[in-house]
Amino acid sequence: MHRASTCLIGILLTTVLLIGCAGGGRGLPSPEGRAATVEGTVSDAQGPIRDVVFIFAQFNGQLLTRNTDPNGFFTISFSITQTTTVTITASFGGQTATQSVIVSPGQTVVVNLTLGGTSGGFPPGPPGGDGGIGVDGPPPPPPL
Question: Coil, strand, or helix at residue 9?
Fold first, then answer.
């Protein structure tokens, strides 16, 4: 009988731990991310770009796309669980600008990009391909 009650207590303790009891019934903490933000402006030699500029954020195997507002400002928010390197690329009229930044959960990082370099596009495509973005629009979404 003692062995059966010990086993039952072990099962109950495991169930309480997994399901949760006090503290809102949340159980074991999950690795939920916290919001992080990269924001900034895009300009060229003449000043801020007053048109839609495509912005790409690449991190942890993900690719997010956004556009600037009419003043050349962009904001990209995402969820991360740990400090992450994010590569931001702006593309407009065949010109690009890229900068990598380190972002921690809960942090906002400012990135101001100046267009000037030319590129086959971002993200790079396969050899012989068009390389991604051009003047006509953003590239297709990456395969999952």
Answer: helix
**Which residues have C-beta within 8 Å of that of residue 49, sequence separation ≥ 6?**
42, 43, 68, 72, 92, 115
Rounded CA separation 133/119 (Å): 9
Cβ within 8 Å of residue 91, ≥6 positions away: 53, 54, 56, 119, 121, 122, 133
Distance CA 92, CA 55 (A): 9
C-alpha to C-alpha distance for 96 and 3, rounded to whole angstroms: 70
pLDDT digits (tens, 9 = 90+) for 8-19: 454 544 444 444
Between 132 and 44, the more confident residue is: 44
Dihedral pair phi/psi, residue 103, rounded to 5°: -125, 135
Residue 76, token pair as written in the block: 């990209």
The CA–CA distances, whole Å, from 29 to 18, 59, 64, 66 equal 10, 24, 27, 32
The pTM assigned to this predicted structure is 0.62
